[in-house]
Amino acid sequence: MTKRISPIQRFKMMNPIIQLFKFFILSIKVMVIVAGGHGGTRKTR
To answer: CA quadruple 29, 33, 36, 41: dihedral positive or negative?
Structure first.
């Protein structure tokens, strides 16, 4: 009944830390773009 998935894929799916890590990388990329002045925000440091 169950599909054969490798333990690594199952580990990735079940692990919330990896999901959080992906989210962090994505937000860091966005922050770098905004900080680089590409976003056109009027942020003053």
So the answer is: negative
Among 4, 23, 5, smallest CA distance to 13 is for 5
Distance set, CA 5 to CA 20, 27, 29, 42 (Å): 22, 29, 31, 47
Residue 38 contacts residue 29 (beta carbons within 8 Å): no
What are 23-41's pLDDT values in tens digits? Answer: 999 999 888 888 776 655 5
> Which positions ≥6 away from 12 have C-beta within 8 Å?
18
